[in-house]
Amino acid sequence: MKPVIPIFFSVNDAYSPFLATAIYSLKENASRRYAYRIHILTDDISRENRKKLQHFADDEFEIVFYPLSERLLALPGIERLQQHCFGAFGSITIYFRLFIPALFPQYDKAIYLDADLVVPGDISQLYRERMGNKLVGAVADYSIQKITPFMQYIDDYVGVDHRNYVNSGVLLLNCKRLREENLAGRFLDWVEKYGLETVAPDQDYLNALCWGGIHYLDPNWNTMPSECVPEMESPEIIHYNLSAKPWLNEYAPQEEYFWHYAAGSGYFDEILARKKAFLLNPEAVRHYRGAIRKLIRMAARLTRSERSFRSIITTRQELRLCS
After folding, report:
1. CATH number of residue 301's parent domain
2. Among the listed ranges 85-99, 203-217, 230-244, 288-302, which one has the minimum average pLDDT value?
């Protein structure tokens, strides 16, 4: 029997076409020396979309759907989180990746992926990455490295060095260690006691709590296309982060990878139709392009706050998992 690699996604129904593109790319390039179990956490994927996504399943590539909120609400103390969903996202589902180790105790190690990406590389190589005793493996988020308000926010509010602040869209989780350190429980305690507003809720908490316990992956495992940085020659994962999404732009850096895999997703015509409709809707385009500016303004406002991750951790270093 082949070793099983567990991989997690968390999406809603509207994101099904992009999830299918991600799964297709992952399967096309994954080593057949392993079997894969794809966990899709969702509350609302339609029966039709589930059927289309299951098209990728076979004996060694299992696709399983889990009711996301039902799983989260089964956790002790989760009701505290619902009262503190601040920031750019108003739902507890954005925090799901932080609870994978607690919700799936059968795994000592797992991969979490956002759905706005493609995987030209062999995902088993990421899983085999040696982490030692570190808590998570992730890539430094260079997509914000040249945006001054974000850099200041990370340094002064989140309380970590912006040069080593990681993106949470691709995570290699040391589930065993994260359970030992009680990430889920300590995160919920943080939220209940301090209820801090955040620009990137799960990502900010992940960096603040796990600082000192992060294994930095090769940037090829989470390349984030941007006009500000050169394209990487051999990307293993291309993450269309922030405003770089090919289905929302006339042109996006490294979009050729996305369209290549979208052609095998079963949703190619639908994705093209969505893109056309979006670009022909000036109000939708303005809202989309204004979203990043809104986050930048929010980051600048929070940076001026007296109460922050940095101010709290300065007096209570034990709040970090690796204190």
Report:
1. 3.90.550.10
2. 85-99
